[in-house]
Amino acid sequence: MVLMGMQLTILLFDAYSLKDKRSVIKSILHKLSNQYNVSTAEIDELDTLNKAVIGIGIVGNNRVLCEKVLRKTIDFIEANYEVEIIETEMMEY
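-> structure tokens emitted (93 positions)
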């Protein structure tokens, strides 16, 4: 069994209030969960206006497949949202 996780630090460009930020983050988390069957959460920088840290986790039996899914989530975020991913940290257990 493979447990993999990823921590993404994101800059949001169109967030002018915490309500705007949370709307974008909730959308990202919901779509990632539904489309890629991963666990997601906003884990840090909760009260910072233009910065968010989200965690993405996956469990599987194939390390390569799990890593591929996590990479696809990054591509999905970059392609569909006005954000910049400034830091990525991968974890494997």
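The CA atoms of residues 42 and 54 lie 4 Å apart.
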